[in-house]
Structures are given as C-alpha cells and as structure tokens.
Amino acid sequence: MTVSEKRAAVVYNPIKVDEDALRSLIADAQQAEGWSETLWFATTEDEPGTSQAIEAIAQGATVVLAAGGDGTVRCVAQGLHNTDVPLCLLPSGTGNLLARNLELSLDLAQSVTTAFTGEDRTIDVGIVEAERADGTRESFTFLVMAGVGLDAQMLQNTNPELKKRVGWLAYVDAIARSLKGNGRIRLRFSVDGSTPRAMTAHTVLIGNCGTLPGNLLLLPDALVDDGVLDVVALRPQGLIGWVQIWVKVVWENGVLRRSQVGRKMLSYTKEVRTLRYMRGKKFVARLSRPEEFELDGDPFGTAVALKARVDPLSMKIRVPA
Q1: Is it the case that residue 313 has pLDDT exceeding 70?
Q2: Does the keyword Kinase apply (predicted)?
Q3: Phi/psi class of residue 215: alpha, beta or left (left: φ > 0; alpha: ψ in -120 to 50)?
Q4: What tens digit of pLDDT does each residue of 190-246 get?
C-alpha cells in the first residue's frame, strides 16, 4: 500500500470531544505523513459508533480513530471486529479503560501521532449474548468487562450531571443508592460446558482486561490476548466482607503484586471466600430474575440469561511503533 492510499477515519462523540482541536491535530499529522484526506463521522444517540465504523471501512479507511468515552470505543470496535482495519484510541471522557489496560498514552496529541505512525497489536474480544425477559436475544461485543449485579445497578443509578462535575466520584453516590436495595443476585452458571452450579453474589464480572477505574486491579491474571475470559464473583457477607474485598483489590492486587517480594508474600496468603475467581473460554449464567447488566461501563438494561465467550485475537489495535 502506498502512502497516498492510507486514509484515516475519525468516529467522534461531539458532546465529549473538542472537534476543532482534534481536526487541527489530525490535519497536521495527516499532512506530515502524506496520507489521504481523513474521513469524519459524528456519533448520535441512535447511532453511537458501530454503523459509522462500518461506513468508514466502506469508504476506504485503513485505520479508524475512536474519540469519545468507553461506550464510543466499544461501539466502534463492534464495527471493526474481525476486519483488518485497526482501531486507534483517542483519550476522552473519564474512563479510557481499554487504553489504560493496554498502557497507552492518554495524551491526545501522542495518540493522534500513533494513528499515523504506529503499528498494530491484536487482542481478544468478548462476545455477550443476552436473553431478555420476553425471550428475545441480542449479541454485543465488549473489550474490557461485562458485569451483572451491583456494578450494573450502580451504572444505572449514576447521576449524569454529577458525573460531569466530579467524574468517577459520582459512582460513590451510585453505589450507596444501589446498596439500599436487595443487591444480591442468584444464578446458575457453567464455565466451558461444566455441570451448572448455583451461586449467590452481589456482582459477577467477566473480564477481557483486569484493571478498573482508579487503577484498581480486580482481575490480576487477565490478559487481553490470552484467549480466555477471567470471571470474578463478589460475595461479601456484611461490612467485613467488603473490607476483605477492598484489601484484596487495593493492597494485594494493587501493591503486593507489583514487586517480587510482594508476590512472594502473596504465596503464603489464603484466598478469601468473598471473591471467587474462574477462567474459561465460555461463561453461561441463568439468573433467577431479570437483572441489570453492563458492558464496558455502559448499562444495557436487564437480562434473564447471559452467555459470554471470547473471540481470540479478533481485533487490531493501533499502538506506538
């Protein structure tokens, strides 16, 4: 492919992006590298990015830049899934979860440069099939995590105006309101076709990556290109249980695992019953009642059953050369 045949496309959320600043950066990088004129696609509430990514490919894009929150990234990725066109992440919003898990720069100018000069890395994609209460089924992709239970209820209860003002701190308010109700979910689950088992939990998270907002390492063994999903069920019993989870996630995963001495110390500790870890290529759960579920930080309504599987190495991500 000659340089002139290379063409970028930008799929952007006009509410979250400074379009003038982004266009200026793109124009400079495009000219410096001798690429063809960049294509631009704004998202809307009805079309949040997937159809724009598909159209970008149809118009000859050789890389698609996603500029918006984690929801925009997920939608654009859904349009690029199982194609040869890479996704480039442009930091925006409060999350940038995939970029953080891939340890990519959150500097906008550097990210734009990467789009035109970087190389491609292949990662896994998670696929979730959700069964609604009326029996209908829908399929979605996710890049970071899917969740059912408290975390999805929290997202549903988050005040959007408060989130605009204080960012992720708005979730503290949402968690408090979510915990007021009966936060437990009951389900029967199976991993890789194993015999179904019953479980009660506050939340179940299915991860392609392991790090949450605030640099919290919830799934320490999760790798974005290992061909498996990492699952954790949070099952605290009262305040002590929540303290155990906090110690595990913040102290053990966030501090001890980052040093050789700390990892040695962890080898002598016992796993806590409040956290149940599982791994597999497929995770199936049937819920006792319709429950809220989320994908990459966005609520998707309720489901009575979820079937999650990994599609190994099916997405190209543009990273620095």
Answers
A1: yes
A2: yes
A3: left
A4: 999 999 999 999 889 999 999 877 677 888 889 999 999 999 998 767 667 666 666
Give this prediction's pTM: 0.85
Question: Whole-angstrom Cα distance, residue 156 to residue 133?
Answer: 18
Rounded Cα distance between 66 and 73, Å, is 6
* CATH 3.40.50.720 for the 126-235+274-312 domain, yes or no: no
Structure-block tokens of residue 139:
């399929």
Closest CA to 81 of 318, 313, 289, 256: 313
Of 49, 70, 92, nearest to 295 by C-alpha is 70
Whether 277 and 228 have beta carbons less than 8 Å apart is answered as no
DSSP H or E run through 205: strand 203-207
What is the C-alpha separation between 297 and 242, in angstroms, rounded?
A: 21
Decide: 313 and 122 in contact? Cβ < 8 Å. Answer: yes
Condensed to tens digits (0 to 9), the pLDDT of residues 119-170 reads 999 999 999 999 999 999 999 999 999 999 886 665 554 445 544 544 444 3
Q: What are the backbone angles phi and psi of residue 208, rounded to the nearest 5°?
A: -95, -25
Of all helices (H) and strands (E), which one includes residue 230?
Answer: strand 229-234
When the candidates are 3.40.50.10330, 3.30.70.20, 3.30.70.3040, 3.75.10.10, the CATH number that belongs to 3-117 is 3.40.50.10330
Task: Give residue-wise pLDDT tens across range 242-280.
Answer: 666 666 666 555 544 565 654 555 454 555 567 889 999
Query: How far from chain centre, in Å, is Cα 255?
Result: 23
One fold for both 3-117 and 126-235+274-312?
no
Report the C-alpha gap between 232 and 268 in whole angstroms. Answer: 21
Q: Which among 77, 68, 76, 84 is positioned nearest to 125, based on CA atoms? A: 77
What ranges do the domains of the chain cover? 3-117, 126-235+274-312
Closest of 94, 88, 38, 101 to residue 71, by C-alpha: 94
